[in-house]
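Duplicate of #3305? Posting structure anyway:
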């Protein structure tokens, strides 16, 4: 496929996503007085539309692997993070409403941030350090008790395809503090929707879900090591051949920082 066609498709996709955001944010406000599950469901239509556009216009297809591993119990999802694609996709495809932990600055984005503010997410001020994590634990307990699932990206930010960011122990710390199962997720969305790239490429995204991991008897660092090992090993299975080099192995968690959310 020529670069011009890829550019044109990516442009049409972006324009549709912007238009959908401008239309859907006010609709979300109309549903603000409704029960939360209904409000969440209505909001998720934006996500469904964006993923449908990505599939129809840009050719980004997807498949699940291990979906049956998701338990009927409170969990904290710890996911690989390569793209904006998974932040949109996972919200409406999980069996329970998700709670994202994100930097509070996202709430200030016009339209998108306003709609986000209507959901029971956990915005944090990273400048507050340990106080920020205490806030995550406080809100996390309530959200889990309400039947929602918490999702966090241990790398903190999107990693480039074939690379691994530094895994942080905020998610495992929360799991240990709340005695909640952890479910690791590996995915290769960055091959189609690369970090910091306007061009979206056609292809198949595999979302691989691991078996739940119990935090019982483990420190956050030990739990993080287990999560990191599974995700990075699975990335070599689901990624296109040659993308993951043999030297891109999970680091010793000697350098991991459990004080980061």
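Output from current build:
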């Amino acid at each position: 496929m020529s670069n011009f066609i890829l550019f044109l498709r990516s442009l049409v996709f972006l324009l549709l996503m912007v238009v959908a955001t401008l239309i859907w944010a006010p609709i979300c406000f109309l549903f603000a007085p409704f029960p939360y599950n209904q409000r969440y469901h209505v909001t998720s239509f934006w996500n469904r539309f964006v993923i449908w556009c990505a599939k129809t216009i840009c050719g980004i297809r997807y498949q699940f692997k291990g979906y049956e591993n998701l338990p009927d119990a409170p969990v904290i999802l710890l996911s690989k993070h390569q793209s904006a694609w998974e932040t949109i996709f996972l919200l409406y495809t999980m069996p329970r409403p998700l709670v994202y932990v994100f930097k509070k600055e996202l709430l200030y984005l016009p339209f998108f941030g306003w709609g986000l503010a209507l959901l029971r997410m956990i915005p944090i001020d990273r400048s507050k350090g340990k106080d920020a994590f205490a806030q995550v634990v406080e809100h996390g307990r309530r959200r889990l008790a309400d039947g929602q699932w918490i999702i966090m990206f241990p790398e903190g930010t999107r990693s480039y395809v074939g690379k691994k960011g530094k895994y942080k122990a905020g998610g495992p710390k929360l799991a240990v503090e709340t005695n909640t199962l952890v479910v690791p997720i590996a995915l290769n969305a960055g091959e189609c929707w690369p970090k910091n790239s306007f061009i979206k490429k056609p292809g198949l995204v595999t979302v691989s879900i691991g078996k739940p991991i119990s935090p019982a008897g483990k420190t956050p660092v030990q739990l993080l090591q287990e999560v990191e090992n599974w995700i990075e090993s699975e990335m070599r299975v689901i990624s296109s051949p040659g993308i993951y080099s043999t030297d891109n192995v999970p680091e010793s968690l000697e350098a991991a920082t459990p004080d980061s959310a």
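Confirmed duplicate; merging threads. Residues 3-30 form the longest helix (28 residues). The mean pLDDT is 89.
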